[in-house]
Amino acid sequence: MGLCNAHYYATRDPLGAAGDFTTAPEISQMFGEIVGAALADCWARAGSPADAVYAELGPGRGTLAADALRVLRKAGFAGDVHLVETSPALCAEQVKRVPDAQWHEDIDGLPKAPLLLVANEFIDALPVRQWVGSEERSLTIEGERLVFTLDGEIREDAPVRDAAVAAIARHLTQHGGAVLVIDYGHARSGVGDTLQAVRRHKYADPLADPGEADLTAHVDFEAVSKAATSTGAAVTRIVEQGEWLTRLGITARAAALATGNPERRDELALAVQRLTTANRMGKLFKVMAIHSPEWEIPAGFQ
Ligand code: SAH
């Protein structure tokens, strides 16, 4: 899964109607603006530390960063921008929208400073392992096809995910800051096979054409929470994306944008619906924050 996704992301921009899938920041500027407002509020309540930086894990096209930074800059945040990205194809997109950023290949490259950090649909792309009982499910080749070695009741874990979350959480505990983790997944650990492939906006066979489809697994937010607290970081509860965006004022933001741009009223209403309603992205997508114990709980989680 790790190798396939490394190849997949390195060789294309998969986002948008002409690509394989669409993410929340690509649906509407309001998503990134609300993320920016949430981080601006965290930063202000921490005493507006001048050394804080905006950072993002897997920033895609840089759309979310550009929208969030517009709001952060208005709120007086003047810090640097650090993007963690391994894909040359997506770095080329990010530089168009966030030209002043600095790039890193992994989390350890981030500066030792308070972080205003975002990870939207990043963790779902990290590799999971699958277990049937105490045996790890792996792959074998049958003729020209990859097939799973085992079937049965599947449990998933993800050492790569846990290590990434622990590294972020340690950084936040030592240097201050908060991360908003936004992804689709479940609030409680459970059983089930959640590995999936998406290509041209449709589900595909995860074992067909390795490296040519987006491979993801649902994020186990309970496991993320445990990996973070094991380092001493504070974690918030897990809130559904629809509830979080609504609590942070997406309805008011849409109304304000529609007042200035009446011709966009329908498009804005549709975007709010896609981002917040239960049968679109509102329920399956969850939001949680991990933060320094010295920083207050970010807005939207109380
Ligand atoms: N956050 C963006 C893009 C999500 S797609 C959005 O919401 O639109 C996943 C992103 O994570 C891509 O930018 C991809 O290149 C990046 N990515 C995937 N695996 C990664 C890894 N191991 N290290 C760093 N970036 C990774």
Textual characterization of the structure:
The chain has 302 residues and is of the alpha/beta class. It has a single domain, classed as 3-Layer(aba) Sandwich (Rossmann fold), CATH 3.40.50. Helices cover 37% and strands 23% of the residues. The strands form four sheets. Strands 1, 2, 3, 4, 10, 14, 15, 16 and 17 form a nine-stranded mixed beta sheet that branches. It has a three-stranded antiparallel beta sheet with strand order 6-5-9, with no helix packed on it. A three-stranded antiparallel beta sheet has the order 12-11-13. Strand 5 and strand 6 form a beta hairpin. Helix 3 packs across helix 4, helix 6 packs across helix 7 and helix 9 runs antiparallel to helix 10. It starts with a helix and ends in an 11-residue tail after the last strand. The model has no long low-confidence stretch (mean pLDDT 97). The protein binds S-adenosyl-L-homocysteine. The site of S-adenosyl-L-homocysteine has 19 residues, from helix 1 and helix 2.
